[in-house]
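S1.2 Input.
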Amino acid sequence: MTPTVIISCRVMQELLTQMLPEDTPAVYLEITLHNTPKKLSAALQKEIDAVAQPSNVIVGYGLCGNGLVGVKSRAHTLIIPRTHDCVAIFLGSHQRYVRRFFANPNTYYLTRGWLEARDDPLHDYLDYVRDYDEETADYLVEMKYRHYRRLCMVGFSQQELSECRAMAMEVANFCNSRWNMEYEETIGTTSMLESLLKMPARLNSGDPEFVVIPPGGEISMEMFLREGEAAPQAMGRGE
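S1.3 Output.
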């Protein structure tokens, strides 16, 4: 029986830990890798190459600013959610993400994991001030976030939303003062992650929600595009 291995962004660690059998090998990569696609690609390839036995490797990422493009499966089979980024995974499906996109385009998403990693507009700004100066920080944060109009906190229960609200509102207040962003909350679902974990048993199902890369294959951007869909142009969370 072919073993299953998880290689995922750390933002999904809490959810996956609750869902996986205890003996499932899992590696969680730093959340901020998605900010530099080339570093994400190199880190993911390194972990794939480190898997000794031919395995079904579940990849807990979306396309992530083309950060997965060029990654090779080697002796393994890679199984990846067919999404542009992790937002659709947390919302439960590409379809729900698309519905939200057309209802409220230019939305930036938060989760507990991103907040705890300080991967958000407020802490980006504070990091820029620390590393450069206030004028440069203002310029950089404007270039990165000025097109967003809404901030959405995704939680997986009302309790989680309540627990994270203070952190989320700190970011929301910053974004509202700078760009007049509106703030909202929504309940996410683990349905896509649940389906992802079942995929090793149904590799030949042709499920359009997932990309399956056979041994000797390589990830390309086109594998993630649906009919009539344009290539993603940005790295942002949501757009």
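S1.4 Remarks. Strands lie at 4-9, 26-29, 56-60, 77-81, 107-110, 150-155, 182-187, 210-213.
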